[in-house]
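Sample pair:
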Amino acid sequence: MSRALIPALVTACLAGSALADDRQDSGVRGVVKMGPMCGAESNPPQPGCEDRPYSTVIRIRELPDRELVKKVRSGKRGRFHARLEPGRYRLTPRGGKSGFPSCSGVDVTVKAHQFTRVRLECDTGIR
């Protein structure tokens, strides 16, 4: 095999796997929020005390073996999406470096030809 052909084949394989991911019509989409933002919570929240969007990295692990399959980032509005094959996954947002906000993982089931909606929550520690 010629040396010039090897890079072309590698590029074609990588492009093919990216195209396969783009065609996937199932996955998750959602938002990451952090709260509480004020010491005393009320329902409805006082102005300025609503949970706020949180921009962070979300690790997506396949269940039950917990193999990391993807990392995605939530934007400044806290929104994210990831194309995934049907199956069970755990989504875990990364918390703050100081320990807050503290984020917990959520288990979801992705069905064929559907996007599962998810709300991930992170605790600010404000009481």
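The two ends are 66 Å apart (CA to CA).
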